[in-house]
Each structure stands twice: as structure tokens, then as C-alpha cells.
Amino acid sequence: MGKADRVVIVGGGLAGLAAGIELLGRGKEVTLFEAGARPGGCCTTTWMGGYGFNDGAMYVALPELLDAAFEQLGMDRQALLPLRQIRSLQTSRIDDGGAVAFGAGGRVTFTPAAFGADPTGAQVDVARLVERWQPLLDLLVKEVIVRPFSLATLLRKGWRELPKLRGTVADELERMVRDPAVRSALGAVTLYTGLAPQRTPVMQIIGLIAMLADRFYLPEGGMGRIPDVLASRFESLGGKLHANSRVQRILVENGRARGVLTAGADVKADAVLSTVSGMGTCLHLLDPQVVPSSLRRKARNAPLSQKALSIQLGLRTKIDTDSHFMARLPRMEDLDALLRPAAGPARWLCYAVPTVTMPELAEHGGSIIECYPGIDQAVAAQEWTVDRARGIADGVIELLSRWHSLDIAEIRVRSPREFQADLGLYAGAIYGLSPAASAMAHFPHKTSIEGLFLAGQTTYPGYGVALAMLSGIFAARAIQ
Ligand SMILES: Cc1cc2nc3c(=O)[nH]c(=O)nc-3n(C[C@H](O)[C@H](O)[C@H](O)COP(=O)(O)OP(=O)(O)OC[C@H]3O[C@@H](n4cnc5c(N)ncnc54)[C@H](O)[C@@H]3O)c2cc1C
To answer: How many degrees, rounded to 5, is the angle at CA 245 between CA 240 and CA 251?
Structure first.
């Protein structure tokens, strides 16, 4: 293959923006097409009536990874994107009884004090859990995730850690944490994977350890500041960013990508980098006749992540809570109840109150509540009607109003239909691939179609704000 001087990027999420900056830094001519009205994809903030609502990502876990991605792009993250730590982490009321709270430094408290049989023991267990997983966390953050995947590095540096990776999050919590209430509160943290702890591969416990190790942050100004900073660097380097420009086809001739079709016109390029999921790229953007059968099979059989219903409330008054994440939970063995619609009146819910950490997200004071209640995963994205979504939202609001006084100024409800149509998420699956999928399910950065490259959350290293950026950097580096 000759040198690719002109590169077209499909999709202006974090992967596309990071890839663009990397390519511009190497002197390429880069044109980026974004279907939405602005770049950022799943990491934007929408302001409604003075409330800054997340469109997707809610927090930055492990800011070291964001630092590494920025550094690889020659950008100073600390100067460009100040972060604020989420300090009052989570309060969970268990089984309609007392509450377990995790604060800064993984501090555990019980309310009322007598609710937990042994607060000191619980503190010791949480500290031991963090200590046990910290070496793997460090290895992933410093050596593995920040570079293109290398099995050799993983085996050479991580052989001591690999035996820990057998089993599930539930197995690990059963083994390490004696108090059932604390187990439930910890198990609920990994529900963002869309899987019950009994079905969540133990590797995903890293997200929980990140929280307990004080590694959850918000960018000053909200999540949307991340793509803002990247888009402005992309444009200052001479990148051409076209918003409201959906790519209809990636053009392939004689086995080689030669550009894209957008708004009825051909745009020629020496290489095309698609950050639209591997499934969307292979099954929607390429002519079926040019997709190699192995890639088509991978796309058709891809294990998809969960679909989600998002409910966001802008409240005129401050609600009575001092934790960023709030939960009403059953015991750990029943946490899967939070992942499906309640059979009777709902009792359980996890929700975030981002204004606890960042009050200015409610410009005129007050609070924001954001939650993702369990929904029927068998309902396809296009079957989600406004009424169906609103019916669930009404139930959630009723439940929340039993615990807090809600003076609601703004309500935003988005169903899998909107996640598919507005954010371009394939089949409405919020992370693309299931967090339980093996690394083998990832799509390659360099495909078997010459000149066609893939990045984004369905490629290595996977979903997440910093990880999507890193995937863009790795894919861009595969372009000569
Ligand atoms: C609800 C939700 C909550 C999340 N919570 C967190 C969290 O708290 N922390 C965290 O780290 N991560 C979180 N994530 C994951 C994280 O946001 C994503 O992994 C990451 O932002 C994905 O970036 P990306 O560039 O790969 O894809 P995307 O952000 O999906 O970007 C792809 C872009 O391509 C555009 N596009 C699609 N089709 C076309 C087309 N044909 N032509 C042109 N453009 C097109 C889309 O509009 C989109 O802008 C969450 C995601 C969701 C959806």
C-alpha cells in the first residue's frame, strides 16, 4: 500500500477526534464527518433549562488513562481539562433497612451505626479488596491499556495477576467481603455493565476498585468539555470537521477503500477510518459484496451490550443527599432485579446526583438526578415508543418521590430508540460490545480491506471515555 496522505474519519466521538489529532500531528490531511450537530458522540453534555445533562458518559474513571491519551496526543490534560474528584461516592440503603456509604479513601460507614454488625471489619475487608486488585489496576493503567494490545507484555508482566481473573464479581465479593450489606453495595457498582454480579467476569471488578481507590472524576464544566477540548485542537491543527454530515457508504474499489459517500457526493481519500461500531461499519456502511466473510460473521455474531433507558430530572431545589451515587438495593444475590422491569411496584433503583460533586451543573441551583432503570432487553430499539418510555419514567419518578421531595423543572427521557437514532449506537447497545465479551470480540484496527481502519469502543481497548480515545490513537498509528 502507498502512503495515505488524505484520511477521512467517519464519526466525531472521542475515538474519531483523538484519531484525527494524531493523524494531523503526522502531517496528514484529515476530514472528519459527524452525523450529529456537534462532535462528542456518547460524551456530550446537553443544557436544558439551565441543567447540564450527560448525553452518555457520566464520569471519568481512572484519570491516569485520560492523561496518557492526552499525552500521546501532545496535549496537557491538566491545563486543558481540569477534573474534580467525586469524593462522596455512594450511599446504598439495603433491603429497606440501614444504609452503607463509601466515602473518599474507600471509607465505609453504616447508618444507623448499629446497622452494620462490624464496621471495622467491613473497612478491613474493603481495604483488602483494593489491595488485592491494585497491582492489576496499576499494570493495566501503566502498561497494558495505554499501548496497542500485546499478549506477550500481558503474560510477561501480568503472570502473577492472571490467576485472579477466574470467576465472577459475585464470587470475589463472597470471598473477600463478610458483611452482606457491604457486598450488595459493592456489587451494585458494577451493574453499569448491564450484568448481575453473578454473571460479570471478575475482570470488571476493576471499575469498582477504581471507585474505591478514589479514581472517579468529573471534568470542570461537565463531560462535554472533553470533546470540546479535542475538537478545538483538531480544528486548530487544520482538520476539517463537518457536523450534520452522515456518511452513507464507505466506498471500496478493487478491494481498497477509496473514500466515502456523504450528502450524495463522493469524497476521495487514501484511507478511511471508521469509528462507527464494527457492526455498523460492516453491516450498514459497506456494500455487502465487499465485506470479507470473516468480518461479516464477526459483525453478525457480535455479543452486544445492554440497551438502556435514560431518565434525567432537573430539580428546582437541592435534594436531601450528600452522595454522588445513590441506591436502594436488595441483597447481592438479588441484584439482577435492578436489570429488569419490576414485576410489581418497583422498590430498587440506582441513581446519580451529579450536582453533589458539581452544583453548577444546575445553573440556578437545585439538583440533577440521572438514572438507568432496568428494561426488557428483548424489546428492539425501534419498538420503543414515547409512551412505553414515559410509562417507565413515571414509575421511577413516583419511586424517587417517596424518598426525596421532587420539585421538577425539566424531565428528559431517552429510550434505546434515541440512543440508536441520535447517538448512532448500533441496535441501541450503549457500549457496542458486551462488557462480558472476550477480547476476541473486538474488531481489528486494520481491516482486511486495504485502506480501511476501525476505531472506537468496539475495538481495543474497548468502551469508556479514555479507552475510546486510545483506540483512535492506536488505529491512527496503523495508518502509514
Ligand atoms: C449511556 C452511556 C453511559 C456511559 N457511561 C460512561 C461513563 O460513565 N464513563 C465512561 O468512561 N464511559 C461511559 N460510557 C462509554 C463511553 O461514553 C464510550 O465508550 C465512548 O464515548 C465511545 O466513543 P466512540 O468515539 O467510540 O463512539 P461514539 O461516541 O459513539 O462516537 C461515534 C460517533 O459517530 C457518529 N456517527 C454514527 N454514524 C455515523 C455516520 N454514518 N456518519 C457520520 N457519523 C456517524 C455518531 O453520531 C457519534 O458521534 C457510556 C456510554 C453510554 C452510551
So the answer is: 90
pLDDT tens digits for range 283-326: 999 999 999 999 999 999 999 999 999 999 999 999 989 899 99
Per the DSSP assignment, residues forming a β-bridge with 46 are 53
Q: What residue owns the CA closest to ligand 1's atom 7?
A: 57
Q: Which residues contact 223 (CB under 8 A, 6 or more apart)?
A: 43, 44, 45, 54, 55, 56, 57, 58, 59, 60, 465
Is residue 269 within 8 Å of 6, Cβ to Cβ?
yes
Spacing, Cα 42 to ligand 1 middle (Å): 3
Contact 41, 257 (CB under 8 A): no
> Do 453 and 469 touch, CB atoms closer than 8 A?
no
As given in the structure block, the three cell numbers for residue 451 are 485502506
Return phi, psi of residue 51, to 5°: -115, 130
Give the ligand 1 atom nearest the CA of 458: 26
Does 41 contact ligand 1 (Cβ within 6 A)? yes
How remote is the CA of residue 245 from the centroid of ligand 1, in Å? 16
Q: What is the percent of the chain where pLDDT is above 90? A: 92
Percent helix, strand and coil across the chain, each rounded to 5? 40, 20, 35
**Exposure on the CB side of residue 454, measured as CA atoms within 13 A:** 25
Confidence of residue 2 (pLDDT cuts 50, 70, 90): low
Question: Measured in angstroms, how far is the CA atom of residue 431 from the centroid of ligand 1?
Answer: 8
Q: Cα(346) to centroid of ligand 1, in Å?
A: 30
Q: Specify the residue with its C-alpha closest to ligand 1, atom 50.
A: 57
Tell which residue, 105, 137, 120, 104, has the closest CA to residue 182: 120
Domains and CATH numbers, the chain: 6-43+223-302+432-477 (3.50.50.60), 117-209 (no CATH)
Peptide bond just before 197 cis, omega within 30 deg: no
d(CA 211, CA 187): 12
16 lines ligand 1 (CB under 6 A): yes
| Minimum-distance ligand 1 atom for the alpha carbon of 455 | 26
Q: What is the pLDDT of residue 1?
A: 46
- State the Cα angle at 48 between 56 and 33, rounded to 5°: 50
pLDDT cut 70: percent of the chain above it: 100
φ and ψ at residue 460, rounded to 5 degrees = -60, 140
CA-to-CA separations, 433 to 200, 214, 379, 402, 410, in angstroms, rounded: 14, 27, 18, 36, 32
Q: Global pTM?
A: 0.97
Mean pLDDT of the chain: 96
Instruction: Provide the β-strand partners of residue 8.
Output: 31, 272
Q: Is there an atom of ligand 1 within 6 Å of 42 CB?
A: yes
What's phi and psi for 104, nearest 5 deg?
-55, 145
